[in-house]
Amino acid sequence: MSLSLAAIVEALGGELRGSPEREVARLASLETATPADISFLVPNPKLAGLLAQTQAGCIIVAPAMQEAAGARGDCIVASDPYLYFARLTQLWKRTHLPPEPAGIHPSAVVEEGAQVHPAARVGALCFVGSGARIGAHTVLRERVTVASGCTIGERCLIESGAVIGGDGFGFAPHQGQWVKIEQLGGVRIGNDVEIGANTCIDRGALDDTVIEDGVKLDNLIQIGHNTHIGAHTAMAGCVGVAGSARIGAHCTVGGAGMILGHLDIADHVHISAASMVARSITKPGQYTGFFPIDDNAAWEKNAASLKHLHALRERVRQLEKKLAENGDNARLSG
Amino acid sequence: MSLSLAAIVEALGGELRGSPEREVARLASLETATPADISFLVPNPKLAGLLAQTQAGCIIVAPAMQEAAGARGDCIVASDPYLYFARLTQLWKRTHLPPEPAGIHPSAVVEEGAQVHPAARVGALCFVGSGARIGAHTVLRERVTVASGCTIGERCLIESGAVIGGDGFGFAPHQGQWVKIEQLGGVRIGNDVEIGANTCIDRGALDDTVIEDGVKLDNLIQIGHNTHIGAHTAMAGCVGVAGSARIGAHCTVGGAGMILGHLDIADHVHISAASMVARSITKPGQYTGFFPIDDNAAWEKNAASLKHLHALRERVRQLEKKLAENGDNARLSG
Amino acid sequence: MSLSLAAIVEALGGELRGSPEREVARLASLETATPADISFLVPNPKLAGLLAQTQAGCIIVAPAMQEAAGARGDCIVASDPYLYFARLTQLWKRTHLPPEPAGIHPSAVVEEGAQVHPAARVGALCFVGSGARIGAHTVLRERVTVASGCTIGERCLIESGAVIGGDGFGFAPHQGQWVKIEQLGGVRIGNDVEIGANTCIDRGALDDTVIEDGVKLDNLIQIGHNTHIGAHTAMAGCVGVAGSARIGAHCTVGGAGMILGHLDIADHVHISAASMVARSITKPGQYTGFFPIDDNAAWEKNAASLKHLHALRERVRQLEKKLAENGDNARLSG
């Protein structure tokens, strides 16, 4: 299980400074790499010191670092070392790990009327409902649900336990009880989408819930009915998006971020972890809202004061007024 | 696939103003409806303008809107258009979608000693443990777990991936380690309950965890052991309820709301999204607690100041004192 | 279905004050116990009053309470009543509930090359990938995924729906799109670990994600790739841990706590529920950070003021300055 530097550069490009015949046994971070391993250095001046400390046998570096890296041993020069490294993990997987073959696992349940492309893979113990469509080269790992009438594009990866097409959460209140609104829409997922383990994407009430091309969703995310997520938006674990939110393209949402329903998020908006979006956001940028953690005693005092913040602001206003009056009086009497 | 207005009114009541023979091809929102579709207008003055813009072939309206709606085309007059619409989705499902037939899917695992009512449905790849009971007309979608000794009432809907009856989280600390408290209770779920995809309801430690009639739980919700949820309470996605909480009837909890254990929530309490309940709430009302989102730079400054809020309050107190003394001095010397 | 007090003391030790031949029919809390039940009293002066009210036939008490407890009826004296009770639940389970027999359920899918210890149990509809290893006396409940190359130690309990070894969430940005970093590491779980329902533990990017001995994770928890969780740490439901976090031993994290990636948490750190950890924590202690809940109107006013807190602090600074100047002026002119 190894790759020669020559084979790497042949497959991925980049300029090799060092021995083409060197074999690397493992991909590793700079901190844990041994002389048998290949690693990478992102072009960050703060990390330049790692170059002197790492034991890595070969390092992928940016052109600006090639002298320093070359002086210590083998390196591959690439314009974007992190991207190069990503592609190296893909090369490694192709050459070292068993493929995930196309086809439907015998333990999966695929209902009549579902269309699974022959080049797609439906893993063990999956369920694919009638009328669902799964595109070419898409992989459903194990125990995935794709309910009836939902469509998934090409080259998607759906992790274990994900549920695509559960009922949206819709009820009309009536005399203290809830009357179900049947969810008649579906879920439409584009190409190159990744959906994490145990993540849920609800079907729409009337129209479809839509996930555009290239969206990446981490684990345990809840996407409410009729949400629209723009292309290449990425969300970290535990995020919740309520119904009918319209989220732009190229956005990111940090872990446990929460987006309320029926609002619009522009393209290129970045929501920090643990932040709650209760209004539409029309301008690109980074948005944050969480209570900073503190030792418990300090938090208790500040949280208690927070309950009086509005009153405190009023008290400051009064002080300002009084002081201004005093000043006027002083001037008048001066 | 269509329904005539006559058939709708015959099934659901309401007063038809227009052509009974008109066929509607789809249920749609006012914004997306075409002349072939039926839509609804909730009686909200802010939305009255939609009436002029929508292309819908028929609109369900409240009596107060019947003149305006009738002037533009066909309408159905109903006292509660949203409720009428909910029932129309149910009619549509009954008449247009394949039924979810009763019975146990051959891929499901139902242990000996489980009691599944013949009119219940156990979907593909479900697990029902020994001693569990599932009532009439209850539907387990796919890949649901109902562990041994748990009971589910009638007309419930359990979405894919839900886990009913996992062990509650209970341990006694001992010399730096955790000794398991076996969870000997079960889960008791009433009638007309809906439980979302990948939601978890833990079995009780000694007594049962109880979900009363008509409760609606969205996806990815965690209900701790020995929790008691009163009738017709509804919770949105990503909510967490810790152990032994006692939540009243007719409550709502917004997405990612968090309720600590061993506390009581009165009936008719509404918890906003992303809010954390750390004490019992004895009075009906709306309760909220989350840090308002802001652009990141503004948040950083305010969050940093928040760590000094208690001290700031003390400083304001000092200022007030000093100013009062100055005033007294002024008066004394005046 | 009962146990005699003699049998309990014989199995678990402790000093019986009362009738050895008394049979207990149920374990119960003090509040719900009947004369046929056994209960326990933790040594908390606040709870001593419960002793007079409970109907329990026998109570497990600490030595300090033995006189009071003995005066009202049968009791078992144990140095740590809660620990004794935990062991009693285990005894009860062993003697009253059907065992969870070792072996692989016929509906489970275990790939070639997986190593399942003959004394382990793989429940219904589980998936165990090639190269995965499951140790002796470990139980996978139903519908668990253990992906290829992941290892689980001995005496672990994995609840229904858990996903061990999904891909970590790693992408390199490239021209507005995301290029996948294949996740080549695995998950290594120690002995005596408990993992809750629908909890997800991602495989590492290069190295393994590591969960040390005795860790207890509740339901719906997300553990990112390359996280390291120290021995005997416990986390409540809905917690999220981002990638490459390094969490110490003997820590606790309350429900919905959130820990960002690439940071270190020392041993014996306790994070409160709903608190967000955005920096490393180097000292043991309790840490908290959430916005205190309030009635909605009060919250709205305080939250609005919070957006001006930094400015408010500046205004207080100005007031202090002015007041100090006035004082100086007064003294100068005095």
UniProtKB/TrEMBL annotation, chains A, B, C:
Q: Which Pfam families match?
A: Hexapep, LpxD
Summarize the subunit comment: Homotrimer.
The record's listing under InterPro entries reads: Hexapep, LpxD, Trimer_LpxA-like_sf, UDP_GlcNAc_AcTrfase_non-rep
What's its EC?
A: 2.3.1.191
Keyword terms, alphabetized:
Acyltransferase, Coiled coil, Lipid A biosynthesis, Lipid biosynthesis, Lipid metabolism, Repeat, Transferase
Q: Which residues form the UDP-3-O-[3-hydroxymyristoyl] glucosamine N-acyltransferase non-repeat region domain?
A: 22-91
Instruction: Tell me the function of this protein.
Output: Catalyzes the N-acylation of UDP-3-O-acylglucosamine using 3-hydroxyacyl-ACP as the acyl donor. Is involved in the biosynthesis of lipid A, a phosphorylated glycolipid that anchors the lipopolysaccharide to the outer membrane of the cell.
An annotated Gene Ontology molecular function: N-acyltransferase activity
Q: Which gene encodes it?
A: lpxD
Hey, which pathway is this one from? Bacterial outer membrane biogenesis; LPS lipid A biosynthesis
Would you tell me the protein name for this molecule?
Answer: UDP-3-O-acylglucosamine N-acyltransferase
Biological process GO terms, please? lipid A biosynthetic process
Q: Which reaction does it catalyse?
A: a UDP-3-O-[(3R)-3-hydroxyacyl]-alpha-D-glucosamine + a (3R)-hydroxyacyl-[ACP] = a UDP-2-N,3-O-bis[(3R)-3-hydroxyacyl]-alpha-D-glucosamine + holo-[ACP] + H(+)
Family according to the record: Belongs to the transferase hexapeptide repeat family. LpxD subfamily.
SUPFAM superfamilies in alphabetical order: Trimeric LpxA-like enzymes
Q: Which organism is it from?
A: Ottowia cancrivicina
Q: Does the keyword Lipid metabolism apply?
A: yes
HAMAP family of this UniProt entry? Answer: LpxD
